[in-house]
Write a structure and sequence with these properties.
- The chain has 17 helices and six strands.
- By secondary structure, it is mainly alpha-helical.
- It folds into three domains: 14-103, Fumarase C, Chain B, domain 1 (Orthogonal Bundle), CATH 1.10.275; 110-359 and 415-444, Fumarase C, Chain A, domain 2, CATH 1.20.200.10; 361-414, no CATH class.
- The radius of gyration is 28 Å and the shape is elongated.
- The two termini are 35 Å apart.
- 39% of the residues are buried.
- Bound molecules: arginine.
- Arginine binds at residues 24, 84, 110-111, 114, 319, 321, 323-324, 327.
- Pathway: Amino-acid biosynthesis; L-arginine biosynthesis; L-arginine from L-ornithine and carbamoyl phosphate: step 3/3.
Length: 445
């Protein structure tokens, strides 16, 4: 390898090189922009403590800005023989600016460099996930309000149980997302702490100003203890993955419902034919593959925390190369979840609802509890009312009264969608993404 940062007076075995680099060069491309931002903050701080000249800082920052622009255009490449993104950025600076480029690594290790890259990448991606969740949430609330008066059967044990409504069904998944958003927020807050300055995991003898890099990068605070900062590798990814898995769990369940309700035996919802897929042999098929794939991809995403946990299982304190492998499952997961969220919002928007399900008498028994409650409201003890209606059903004499009155909070007649929206708004207002956005804008000014 031509440009190893740790090159000395011997050549590393080629097989060892191939195996230790693995897929890292490809995965590090996700981190290129953030590696540049981290370096900008680091060298600004190095200048403030006298380890770089003002003029050197100016030139280095200008060149880093160019590299950022290259990465933003998707044109950043890790050249053949270069080990990772960190080495590539340093190489580009050195090629352009000579010895000045070699000064930027004072007080830093690739261990805290990759940590800060991952944090900057993750908080950015979490914002995109949050935005995509909100779009799906709004779509679900809209559908819930639109169909608030359309009844459907509710099931327990997959047996017809009680009256439900499309308003309730859509709204339930909206409220699910409002809860998932709390996990995303916790994940964001844990991510938004600065590990830079922990170096290899034990700090540095240079008088690093970590408060300064924390502010420059718009982190809420730092991971104070340098040993803990390094221990956060893997833990941050796992916790973020838990939040993503929570969202994915909501999506997977919703997708299963949609597949089931779309089946001819239910016929509660339908997709416009251009949103279905066909069969090579059965000419009549209109398959809901979109929901099936959302379900499978979301189920896969739910395994992410476990995958990460097992990769880093039982590692003691300190850096290990094992941690590199987490990138393979973690970095691509954001695009996968975003894609599912965007497609879910798209397809929910297109979904058509059957407003005449209850014309079919097979669903009549779902009104049995309404009848029991009516008798009980008129003074009959509940247990006697239950028995009376039960015997009517057994004798085939039950006549449903479909005029139902559910009025309490969260029920068919009182969905409380405005309250669910307030929960969501409250959580969203506590993210403070503007801190991150302003800091990054300032660094790139
Ligand atoms: N590619 C490495 C990783 O993802 C970067 C850090 C390398 N540090 C080291 N001590 N070898 O972990």
């Amino acid at each position: 390898m031509a440009h190893k940062l740790w090159e000395k007076n011997f050549e590393v075995n080629k097989e060892i090189e191939r195996f230790t680099v693995g897929r890292d060069r490809e995965l590090d491309l996700y981190l290129a922009k953030y590696d540049v931002l981290g370096s900008m903050a680091h060298i600004t701080m190095l200048e403030s403590i006298g380890l770089l000249e003002k003029d050197e800082l100016t030139q280095l920052l200008a060149e880093l800005k160019n590299i950022y622009a290259i990465a933003e255009k998707g044109e950043f490449v890790i050249e053949d023989g270069v080990e990772d993104v960190h080495s590539q950025v340093e190489l580009m600076l050195t090629q352009k600016l000579g010895d000045m480029g070699k000064k930027i690594h004072s007080g830093r290790s690739r261990n805290d460099q990759v940590l800060v890259d991952l944090k900057l990448f993750t908080r950015h991606e979490l914002k995109e996930i949050v935005d995509a969740v909100k779009i799906l949430f709004d779509e679900l609330i809209q559908k819930s309000n639109q169909y608030k008066n359309v009844l459907m059967p509710g099931y327990t044990h997959l047996q017809v149980a009680m009256p439900s409504s499309f308003g309730l069904w859509f709204g339930a998944y909206a409220e699910g997302l409002a809860d998932d958003m709390l996990f995303l927020q916790a994940a964001y807050r844990m991510t938004n702490r600065n590990p830079l300055g922990s170096a290899a995991g034990y700090g540095s003898s240079f008088p690093l100003n970590r408060t300064m890099t924390t502010e420059l990068l718009g982190f809420d605070s730092m991971d104070y203890n340098v040993v803990y900062a390094q221990m956060g590798r893997g833990k941050m990814e796992r916790n973020v993955a838990f939040a993503m898995a929570s969202v994915a769990g909501t999506l997977a369940k919703m997708a299963f419902d949609a597949c089931m309700f779309n089946c001819q035996n239910f016929g509660f919802v339908k997709l416009p034919k251009e949103c279905t897929t066909g069969s090579s042999i059965m000419p009549h098929k209109k398959n809901p593959d979109v929901f099936e794939l959302i379900r499978a991809k979301s189920n896969k995403l739910q395994s992410l925390p476990q995958q990460i946990m097992l990769i880093m299982n039982n590692l003691p304190v300190g850096y290990f190369r094992d941690l590199q492998i987490i990138k393979e499952v973690f970095l691509p997961a954001f695009d996968e979840l975003k894609d599912c969220l965007q497609m879910a919002a798209y397809i929910i928007n297109k979904m058509e609802v059957n407003e005449h399900i209850l014309d079919d008498s097979r669903y009549d028994p779902m009104f049995s509890v309404e009848e029991v409650n009516q008798l009980a409201a008129n003074g009959m003890p509940f247990r006697d009312a239950y028995k009376t209606v039960g015997l009517e059903i057994e004798a085939g004499e039950f006549k449903p009264n479909k005029d139902i009155h559910h009025t309490h909070e969260g029920s068919i007649g009182n969905l409380c969608n405005d309250k669910i929206q307030s929960l969501m708004e409250q959580t969203l207002s506590e993210f403070h993404f503007e801190r991150m956005e302003n800091a990054e804008k300032n660094l790139l000014k």
